[in-house]
Task: structure prediction
Amino acid sequence: MHPRSLFPGSLTSLLASLLIMAAPPSTAGDIDFSQPQPGEALPGGAASHSKAHNRRAFSHPNGNMPFEQRLDFRVGNGVFKKIWVSSPSSTTANDGLGPLYNARSCARCHIGNGRGHPPKDSDDSAVSMFLRLSIPPQNAQQKQQLAAGRIGVIPEPTYGTQLQDTAVRGLKGEGRMQISYREISVALSEGESASLRVPQYSVGDLNYGPMHPQVMLSPRVTPAMIGLGLLEQIPARAIEAAADPEDDDGDGISGRPNRVWNPHSGQLELGRFGWKAGMPTLNQQNVSAFNGDIGISTPDIPRAAGDCTAQQSRCLQMPDGNSELHDGVEASRIMTDLLLLYTRNIAVPTRRKVKDPQVLAGKQAFYQAGCQQCHQPSFTTADNPDLPQLSRQKIWPYSDLLLHDMGEGLADNRPEFAASGREWRTPPLWGIGLTETVSGHSYYLHDGRARNLLEAMLWHGGEAEASKQAVITMPKADRQNLIRFLESL
Ligand code: HEC
Ligand code: HEC
Result:
């Protein structure tokens, strides 16, 4: 029997928080919480931007980007905003949309490069959120395919790996994501309480017949697009060094790297991007988004019919936008290169109020609650002569980029490569305090179920259970300071 289960709940949590305080993880070191640490006001190092913290705060190029590249950044932004149209059209420059798609441009979902949100009511479209789909392996061959790691999931036989709710004229969208919520309440110290909404997902208006009975749905909201090039330049070994898959140090936290297939290098590599770290590189993420979200083919993924499956024969027969002018596909190599440059160089804003006593006290509460065990404060990026402005920067993403079991409450029960149905990648917290300013809402977590930062913390479970209990039991003033700290990131 696990010794802790001998104690009742509140005592267990008290012990858990005492344990954390007694043995601070090494990264806490001996931080002086009376003043900011050197460099922490610039989370992206010299690549941070110091422009206004307004609605456009996630739309600036890296502060140290050479002047000559800024034009390419703007053109890349143009590719990101480009509205695709269906084929055939009077121009071959923009056609190729779909046939099935979720949105007509990258920017339609990544609005202001900020985070998406669940539909506000049944009339609101789910444009900045979608459902990933798959099924468990059905036979030895599929088991073998998954074990070999070349594919991360077995697609739903008719609907593929993602629910596209829209289609070009003459074809039907696949169906509609439906969410219903029920509220549960959580008691906090000093007589406070919070209410969490527990979502339940289903798909309505299925236009291509019933789904497989074992279909697994994974809701995902659009993440913010800042600092991605810096995250890509963190040396894989620095991320892997923090992994502790068997929890050998016994702190209850066992970060694991995702291992995903990189078709470009032809090998399994560390996964970095997406809510389950299912993508190895920014280019792979970008071209997958082109194909799965908009239905656009690229030299890397030349499927003009996007996520249409063999069961969707009409979809496969629709005209495509492949053109000799674009390397025989719908978006040329030049376009994907510009998009790569753009997505690598969106700057992280400078922090606000780093010297504020409440913020500093909140930072201390963050360490005392053990948040930094997963939300690793800083890394130094690799030395890459091809990308000098992203090189050797001390950055403050507040993420270890590893997978953690977050408990049953957050589980989507849909594995993706090495990530289990309970694991999520620690999301970077940089810029999180500007969510309201940039995106006009404050919905957090992979499916936007949390309506504010406190709810986001209270959803933590699994490996983060002790951290959550620390938040529940800490004095109210500390909880408020902790939120001030998160708002300053
Ligand atoms: C329909 C909405 C939608 C569209 C259109 C879309 N995205 Fe995304 N994007 C998302 C969602 C949702 C995720 C999270 C995916 C996941 O976790 O698997 C994401 C993730 C990303 C990420 C990874 C960010 C991170 O923090 O890991 C990048 C980069 C990205 N998208 C780029 C693009 C580009 C480039 C395009 C256009 C070619 C695009 N997206 C189009 C919704 C969209
Ligand atoms: C065991 C690792 C772990 C610990 C410890 C942990 N977190 Fe997290 N955190 C995560 C993961 C993984 C997610 C994403 C979960 C999801 O989206 O379902 C997350 C999500 C969040 C989010 C929402 C981020 C977003 O982009 O929506 C916030 C805010 C956050 N954590 C703050 C904290 C704070 C504050 C603490 C300490 C009280 C803490 N976390 C402790 C792993 C951890």
